[in-house]
UniProtKB/TrEMBL annotation:
Name under which the protein is recorded: Aryl-alcohol dehydrogenase-like predicted oxidoreductase
Gene Ontology MF, one: oxidoreductase activity
InterPro entries according to UniProt: AKR, Aldo-Keto_reductase, NAD(P)_OxRdtase_dom_sf, NADP_OxRdtase_dom
Domain NADP-dependent oxidoreductase: 13-302
Keyword line: Oxidoreductase
Gene Ontology CC annotations of this record: cytoplasm
Pfam families for this protein: Aldo_ket_red
Length: 317
């Protein structure tokens, strides 16, 4: 992906958790985020070359887009790239729901275009994809990506856009050491062959692969991720211990190793950032080069864990 800022950074920054309402007990991660804290994240990210921000309407139903725009205030539009999404499942009933949702996003983001606009989840590829073409022609969106699509759906979307001289420029799917369905389904190979950027989200499995958590130190109770991951932490112990050991030898954390793995696989990880210190780890991860035997060992340990972290919103690849 190119834009006024050049090529895509090695990692994109995810703002799903920025959609928290700020009310105690209502945070995705069991924490509260402040405007000052988010501004600190932005300043550190921008100064380290991490300038691609990924958000969506459904992240707090617009709140993530709004607070991201506030945190980016003062930066020239050419200094950062914006990635947001059309979600068919919440489409309105107007004449052009795609354009309507985009305009609302542009208003919240305080801009007149987005660098990368995604069809968030599959519903009816033939129905929604053509709606993107006029938006591309008018420059309201620079490039189109598809998220949570299987190989057949990616190909159909690409065919539809191709008839107007455009194409699917990016794919965004859940991809981690614990969940490699896009690799097994041939989607990564398709992206390599067609020079399509693959963005991997949930690389850290919402913290379960950071090495910070284990059976005696579970994820924060009351957060949605605790309900998903705490029961499988014992099965992940061998993997996260090995990730921590590999990281320690390279001056990085287990999370850095998980991120470095995703980069080594040819993907652009989308890393959720809720603290400025997360950027330090991301900078270190970018500098890690994993040997082929490291990658093979980690994948074998992940397979041996025998867990399925497919999200409720995902269909089989």
């Amino acid at each position: 992906m190119t834009s006024t800022t050049g090529t895509t950074p090695a990692a994109a920054l995810g703002t799903w958790a920025w959609g928290d309402s700020g009310e105690v007990g209502d945070g995705y991660f069991g924490s509260q985020l402040t405007g000052a804290g988010l501004r600190e994240i932005v300043e550190k990210a921008q100064s380290n070359g991490f300038t691609l921000w990924d958000t969506a309407v459904v992240y707090g139903m617009g709140r993530s887009e709004t607070v991201l725009a506030q945190a980016l205030k003062g930066y020239a539009r050419s200094e950062y790239q914006l990635s947001t999404k059309f979600t068919p499942q919440i489409a309105g009933d107007g004449d052009d729901p795609v354009a309507d949702m985009l305009e609302q996003s542009l208003d919240r983001l305080g801009t007149d275009y987005v660098d990368l606009y995604w069809i968030h989840n599959t519903a009816d590829v033939a129905r929604w994809t053509p709606r993107l073409i006029p938006l591309l022609q008018r420059g309201r969106i620079k490039q189109v990506g598809v998220s949570n699509h299987n190989l057949e759906e990616i190909a159909l979307a690409d065919q539809i856009l191709g008839e107007a001289g455009f194409r699917v420029e990016a794919v965004q799917n859940h991809y981690s050491l614990l969940y490699r369905s896009s690799e097994r389904a041939g989607i990564l190979e398709h992206c390599r062959e067609h020079d399509v950027r693959f963005f991997s989200y949930m690389v850290l499995e919402q913290g379960a692969l950071t090495g910070r958590y284990h059976p005696d130190r579970p994820l924060p109770e009351g957060s949605s991720r605790a309900a998903v991951y705490n029961d499988i932490l014992p099965q992940l112990q061998a993997l996260t211990d090995r990730m921590a050991a590999i990281g320690e030898a390279r001056g990085a954390s287990a999370a850095g190793v998980a991120t470095a793995w995703a980069i080594a696989k040819g993907t652009t990880p989308i890393i959720g950032v809720t603290k400025a210190s997360h950027l330090d780890g991301l900078v270190r991860a970018h500098g890690i080069e994993l040997a082929e035997e490291d990658i093979a060992e980690l994948e074998a340990l992940a397979d041996a864990a025998g867990v399925d972290t497919r999200g409720s919103w995902e269909h089989e690849r």
